[in-house]
Design a protein that fits this description.
The complex is a heterodimer of chains A (about 280) and B (about 140).
Chain A (H helix, E strand, L loop, with lengths): L2 E3 L4 E3 L2 H21 L16 H6 L2 E6 L24 H19 L26 E6 L2 E6 L4 E7 L16 E7 L2 E7 L17 E10 L2 E9 L8 E9 L15 E3 L6 E3 L5
Parallel strand pairs in A: 6-7
Antiparallel strand pairs in A: 1-2, 3-4, 3-11, 4-5, 5-6, 7-8, 8-9, 9-10, 10-11, 12-13
Chain B lengths: L1 H12 L3 H12 L17 E11 L6 E7 L5 E7 L3 H6 L12 E8 L6 E8 L5 E3 L11
Parallel strand pairs in B: 3-5
Antiparallel strand pairs in B: 1-2, 1-4, 2-3, 4-5, 5-6
The chains are: A alpha+beta (about 280), B alpha+beta (about 140).
Chain lengths: ~280, ~140
C-alpha cells in the first residue's frame, strides 16, 4: 500500500515507482548536463538547488483525479477530502445558506440559476483549479503557467518575486500570483481576484488572499492544497485540496464560447435553452 | 478530512472502489458541466428517430437539430444538446461524424418546459455505431 505523508512530502514509493523515479532523476541529470544550467536556473534570489519538480516535474497535461467516471485507483494516493463549507462570518453565512437553499429550490423547479459560468465567463481563481477539463502546466525560467481547457483559461505564477501590495492588485479573474519552490512543493500566493469571481457562490472582498501548496507526491501525481483567507468575510482559513493525475500525450483543445444557446429567462431568472436552428 | 480518508481507505481495502470514488466525487463537487442539468427530465427519457437538419460542433455545447418523425407521420424539429467538443472528442466523437441528411436515432432527457428539445443521452448513427454523451450527461435509461 502506498503510504504518503502529505504535509512533509515524505513519500514511501513502491519498488517500481522508486525505479522509475531513479530513471527520471538520471534522465534529468543527463538533460541538465547536456543543456547547461539555463533551463534549471532559478530566477535570481533562489539559493537551494532546484529539485526535479522545480525544474520540469509539473510540465505536461493533467486531469483532475478522480474523474466522474473513474474509480479510485488503490495504487494512487487516496483522493483528497471533500471541500468543506466556507467558514463565513455569521452575518454572511446566513445569507450564503439562504442563497444555497434558493439554488437547490430553483434546480428542483427545473430553473437552474443563470450564472456567470453559464453566461460563458471563465470561473477564475480558485475555481479554475477544480479542473473541470484537462489542465496543462508549463515550467519556464522564472514562471509556471497553468492553463485550463475550459474557457482557455491561463494563469501565470511569477517565481521568486515579491508579491505586490494587496491594494495595488488590479482585480481580475486569475489575479496576481507569485511563487517559489520549497523542495518538491511550489508555494504560491495570489491576490487581486474580482469580487464578482466567486467559488461556490462564496462572497469575498478585495482583501482575499489565496495560498497554494502545489506538491508533487509522485512524478505523475500532484496535489494543490488551497487556503483562502479573507478577513472581511471569513472567520479563518478555508482549506481544501484538489489532486491531479498525469494525462500523458494529451493535446489541449481550444475552447471558445461562440455558440451559447443558454439564456436567462426574464421571468424566473432561470436558465433556458434556445430552441431551433440559429 | 482524516475520517474521510480513513473511510475511503477502508472501502478500498474491502474492494469497494467505486463506492469510494462516488463518495469522493459526490462530496467534492466536481463540476458537472457548463450548467446544471436541472432543465432536463432525465427520469423520463424519450427516443426519437429522424433526419439531421444541422450538426453544430461548438462550445459551450454541440447541437443536433433533428427533424424527428412523429406517430402521425409528420416531422417535428427538436434541438438536442450534447456535451462540448472536448468531452466528446475524448470519448471518440469526431467533429464531422454527423451530417445534415443523416438518419439517426437519439435518446434524450426532454426539457421540463415541454419545448421540443433535450439533453442527449445516446445517439445511433446511420452505420449503427452508438455513442454516449460523456460522463457528466449520464447514460440512457431506456433502450
Amino acid at each position: 500500500m502506498l503510504q504518503i505523508k502529505r504535509q512533509n512530502a515524505c513519500i514511501n514509493l513502491p519498488v517500481v515507482s522508486r525505479a522509475r523515479t531513479a530513471r527520471a532523476l538520471l534522465l534529468l541529470s543527463m538533460c541538465l548536463g547536456a543543456a547547461g544550467p539555463g533551463l534549471a536556473a532559478p530566477a535570481s534570489g533562489a539559493k537551494a538547488p532546484a529539485s526535479a519538480a522545480a525544474v520540469h516535474g509539473l510540465t505536461g497535461t493533467w486531469n483532475r483525479y478522480p474523474q466522474l467516471d473513474e474509480g479510485v485507483d488503490p495504487k494512487l494516493p487516496p483522493p483528497p477530502a471533500p471541500v468543506p463549507p466556507p467558514p463565513l462570518k455569521p452575518e454572511h453565512k446566513a445569507q450564503w445558506d439562504a442563497q444555497q437553499k434558493a439554488v437547490r429550490e430553483a434546480d428542483a423547479r427545473g430553473e437552474p440559476p443563470f450564472t456567470d459560468y453559464v453566461k460563458c465567463l471563465p470561473d477564475g481563481m480558485p475555481a479554475m483549479m477544480l479542473a473541470m477539463f484537462p489542465m496543462e502546466v508549463l515550467q519556464t525560467p522564472g514562471q509556471v503557467t497553468i492553463m485550463q481547457e475550459a474557457y482557455n483559461q491561463v494563469r501565470r505564477i511569477y517565481l521568486n518575486e515579491k508579491q505586490i501590495a494587496i491594494e495595488d492588485a488590479e482585480p481580475g479573474y486569475w489575479g496576481h500570483s507569485v511563487g517559489h519552490w520549497e523542495g518538491d512543493t511550489l508555494i504560491v500566493d495570489t491576490v487581486g481576484i474580482k469580487e464578482a469571481v466567486r467559488f461556490r457562490n462564496v462572497p469575498h472582498s478585495d482583501q482575499m488572499r489565496i495560498h497554494e501548496r502545489i506538491h508533487m507526491l509522485t512524478p505523475d501525481f500532484f496535489e494543490d492544497q488551497i487556503t483562502v483567507e479573507d478577513p472581511v468575510y471569513l472567520t479563518g482559513p478555508w482549506n481544501f485540496t484538489y489532486a491531479y493525475k498525469r494525462l500523458p500525450h494529451y493535446k489541449m483543445l481550444e475552447y471558445v464560447c461562440d455558440s451559447n444557446r443558454e439564456y436567462k429567462d426574464p421571468k424566473t431568472g432561470g436558465t433556458r435553452l434556445r430552441i431551433g436552428d440559429h | 478530512m482524516r475520517q474521510f480518508i480513513r473511510a475511503c481507505r477502508r472501502s478500498l481495502e474491502r474492494g469497494w472502489v467505486p463506492l469510494c470514488g462516488a463518495l469522493a466525487l459526490g462530496a467534492s463537487g466536481l463540476a458537472l458541466a457548463h450548467h446544471s442539468f436541472a432543465m432536463f427530465d432525465s427520469a423520463h427519457q424519450i427516443k426519437l428517430a429522424g433526419t439531421v437538419k444541422s450538426f453544430e460542433w461548438s462550445n459551450p455545447h454541440v447541437y443536433i437539430e433533428l427533424d424527428a418523425m412523429t406517430e402521425d407521420g409528420t416531422t417535428k424539429g427538436y434541438t438536442v444538446e450534447c456535451a462540448n467538443p472536448g468531452i466528446l472528442n475524448r470519448i471518440g466523437w469526431k467533429f464531422n461524424m454527423i451530417k445534415p441528411g443523416d438518419k439517426i436515432t437519439v435518446i434524450i432527457a426532454p426539457l421540463k418546459t415541454g419545448e421540443p428539445g433535450g439533453l442527449l443521452k445516446q445517439v445511433t448513427l446511420p452505420d449503427g455505431r452508438v455513442f454516449a454523451n460523456g460522463a457528466p450527461a449520464g447514460k440512457a435509461n431506456i433502450q
